[in-house]
Amino acid sequence: MVSQAVLAHQLFTGISRQRPACLVEELAGPWQAVVEGRRHEARGGARKRAAGRGPRHQLVFVDRLVVTLIHLRHDLPHSVLALLFLVDRSTVTRAIGEIRTLLAGRGCAVPDRPNLRLRTLADVFAYAQAEGIELRLDATEIQVRRPLAGRGGRRAFVSGKKKQNTMKATVIADAQGRTFWTDALRPRRMHDATVARNEGIDTCFRHFADVEILLDDGNLGLRRDHPGQAVTPPRKGNKISPPEVLEARLRARHRHSPKRITVEHALADHKRWKQLVRGTHRRETLPTTYRAIASLVSDRNTTTR
């Protein structure tokens, strides 16, 4: 039998040794409520036994949390994790589904405020305006399985850039590369600006007029609609442009790039978790997986200066 202390090590879970205890304290109550709700639905009414009676869980909550963290970090198969913890594979599958959902609902942590977490785009804009933070926004692609032949929407996941079937996630970070928000993943054929608009970024720009977001060339439409708030690098000059214009635009692009690169660093932190290198599981669970990993990565915001 593998030592449980070894499996809970940072090399397996991807988080510091102090974080599992905090996660247990934070998620034990919501998990118990989920389990009790499922049992109430299964028996069709109120419980007939006293609390604490009945069969015990083969996999206690702490082990369920460790199993989920190892699966997200290293993408180990459920059967392998079941062998390590001496339980059935279906038990591991059920545990990962429960804990992953709880992690995804936590939101992203912010510096110096351990009790505050950002869950919506409006929360991010309100926090940025209150603290005077300049945001960065970018999107990344994750390769996923191609839908089976004959099913609708099969071409929606085809990426002309990657030449693969991918899903796209939009991430917002600050000047230090700390993750503040990520959206629900969408098929790759949807444009970056369209994804941001579907999440309500136009409304946030109107309500929070002091917030600025640095963007790349793929969001020129947002800069047109929200000048002064959505900041993109200037376009490259054409062949007939004067040399001084070309030089000025090139210098402006060089000044913009190092400011926006921190959101690329945030995306790199997410891609260190094997679940986001390539989505080999169901596409329906990938949005929940990404939000769960983003919440775990953002926990370092409260400890890293």
From TrEMBL:
GO molecular function: metal ion binding
Stored Pfam families: DDE_Tnp_4, HTH_Tnp_4
Keyword set, alphabetical order: Metal-binding
Protein name: Transposase
UniProt KW tRNA-binding keyword: no
Domain named DDE Tnp4: residues: 137-287
Coiled coil, from the record: none
Domain Transposase Helix-turn-helix stretches: 58-108
Cofactor(s) needed by this chain: a divalent metal cation
